[in-house]
Amino acid sequence: MATLPPSTMVFSGASLSTSPGAPTSLCATPAAAVSQMHLYRDHFTSNGSNMLMAATMPPIVSIADRCLDAFYHYFFSGHPFVLPKDILLSLAKDRALDISHLLAAMRYMGSLYIDAGPARAMFLDKAIQLAYLPTCPQDGFLVQTLLMLVVGLDGSCEQERARQLLADVERIAIEIGLHRRDFAAANGRGNPIIEESWRRTWWDLFVVDGMVAGVHRATNFLLYDIRSEVALPCEESQYVAGNIPTPAYIEDLEDQVFIGDDREFSSFAYRVAAARILGRMMRCPPIVFPNDENLEKIESHLSNWRMHLPLSKRDCLDKHCQLDEMMFQAHFITHACTILLHQPHSQLDSSPTRSVTSCAPHSHVPSGDAFNAHTRHTITAACEISKMVTQAVPLLSHTHFFTCVITLSSIVHLSKWALYYIQDEEDLRQLIRLNIGALNRLSEVWKAANTASGQVKGVAQEIYRAKKAQQINPAFWVGFTQDEMINSLNTDEGIMSDFESILPVAAQ
C-alpha cells in the first residue's frame, strides 16, 4: 500500500493499481458468479429456457455496493455525519458535484467489515488519490472523506498516517469555515438534512480529534482551542427520518441549569459535552499533587456531567431498547477521563503493565501502602468500562476507539491484580477475561484491537505465573482460612487454560 503523501503531493494514476489481480471496475462481477451464470446459460439455452432463468436468478450485487451497504450497516452509527444513503446517492447523480472521493472512502470503511479482497486497498488508494488532487474542491465533502480515513487508518494501526490526515482535515475545516454558524445554511442547498450533516461533520471531527488525543496522547486536541459557533446535532432518528428540529447550541446545554431550561438534548450533544471535558483536562497545567485544585475542578465537571443527565441518557439504550451509540461513546469518554485524571495519583503500581503500549506509551505510577480516593475513582471507572462490554449489542457496532478505552480499563485491572493479595480476585479475573474477549471480537475488524489483545493477554499470563510462584512460599497463605485456600487453588486450575482459549497469541 502506498505511503500517505503530504498535503501538497499530487498522486499519479498508477497508485490505483495497488495489488496484482485488483478489480479494474468497482462493479466487477465475482468470478464464481460469472462461472455459475455460464453453467446456467448453457443448460437452459439447450432447453430453450434462458429467459426463465434470467427472470428467476437473484441480482448480482457488486463489491462496491456491498461495501457501501456495510458502511451504513456497521460504521455509520458510530460516526453519523455523512448524509443518509438515499440523499447521498441522489447527490452523487449531480454532474456538477463530484463526491467520488467520499464514496470511495465510504466503501473502504465498509470493506473493513466484509471480505472485500483486493478491493479494500483499491478503495483506500482511490479515496486518497482523489482527495489530494489539486482540482479537488476544498469543501465539507472533502472533510468528511478525510475524517473517515482518519478513523479507518487509526483503527488499522497506521497511527502516523492517521495523524497526518488529521492535521490536513483540521486545516481544511478551519479554512472553509466549517466551525462557523453560517456554514451549514450557506452550503446546505436549502435542505435542512444537508445542513444537519455539516453540523454533524464539524462536531464529529471535534470528538475524533479529542479521542485521538486522549487515547494516544501524541496530539494536543487542536480543535478544542477553536471557537465553535456550530449548532449541536439532533438525535440520529430525527436525522435519518429527515425531521430536523430547531437546533440548540453548546451554550444552551452548559447553561441549562441557570436559565431554567429543562429540555432534553440529543445524545450527540452529550457526547460533545463529554469531549469538551476531555479538552479541559488536557489544557490543565501539569497536576503534580493529588490535592491539586485543577484536578478537583475537572472532577467537578465530570460529576456534573453525570448528575445532570436526563434519566433516558443514563445508560446506552434508547427508548426502544436499541443501542444509543452516541451515549455509549459519551459514557466511555467520561470514564476514560476519570482514569486519566486519577490514575497518576492512585496507589496502583503500573509497572506490571509496562508492555501494554498499543494505544499509548506506558505511564509509570508508583505503588502505595493504601487505597486512596484516587485509586477508588480509577478502579470504579475501569469496572464501568468493562460493564459496557456486556451491553446486549454487537461489539462491532461501536467505534474502534472503544478498543483503546478497553485497553485503558485492562491496565487498571491488571495493575490491581498484580498486588500481593486482594479479596475480590475472582471478580477481577472475570473483568480481565471480559476485556480480553471484547478485544478478541473487535480484532476481527480492527488490527489495533488485535495488537492490544495480545499485549493484555501477555501481561495477564505473566501476573498469573508470578502469583502461582508466590504460592510455593508458605508465607503466602498467612491470613487465609482453609476454605479460602481451597477456593483459590480450585479457581487457579482453569485460569490459564481460560486465557489460552480466549485469545490466540497475536500474530502481528
Strand content: under 5%
Strand tally: 0
Regions with little confidence, pLDDT below 50 for 5+ residues: 1-48, 503-508
State Rg: 25 Å
The number of helical segments is: 21
What is the helix/strand order? HHHHHHHHHHHHHHHHHHHHH
Helix content: 55-70%
Mean pLDDT: 83
Q: Span from first to last CA? A: 17 Å
The main β sheet shows up as:
none
Class by SSE composition: mainly alpha
Gross geometry: globular
Plain-language structure description:
This protein has 508 residues and is mainly alpha-helical. It has a domain at 315-502. It is built from 21 helices and no strands. Helix 5 packs parallel to helix 7 (140-155), helix 6 crosses helix 7 and helix 10 (192-216) runs parallel beside helix 14. The longest helix has 25 residues, at 192-216. The protein is globular and about 80 Å long.
Task: Record the SSE blueprint.
Elements: H1 31-46, H2 50-56, H3 63-75, H4 85-92, H5 100-111, H6 119-131, H7 140-155, H8 159-175, H9 183-186, H10 192-216, H11 236-241, H12 250-254, H13 256-259, H14 267-283, H15 293-307, H16 325-342, H17 373-389, H18 402-417, H19 425-442, H20 447-470, H21 482-502
Helix pairs in contact: 1-2, 3-5, 5-6, 5-7, 6-7, 7-8, 7-10, 10-14, 14-15, 14-16, 15-16, 16-17, 16-18, 17-18, 17-19, 18-19, 18-20, 19-20, 19-21, 20-21
Pfam families: Fungal_trans (PF04082)
Protein name: Xylanolytic transcriptional activator regulatory domain-containing protein
Keywords: Nucleus
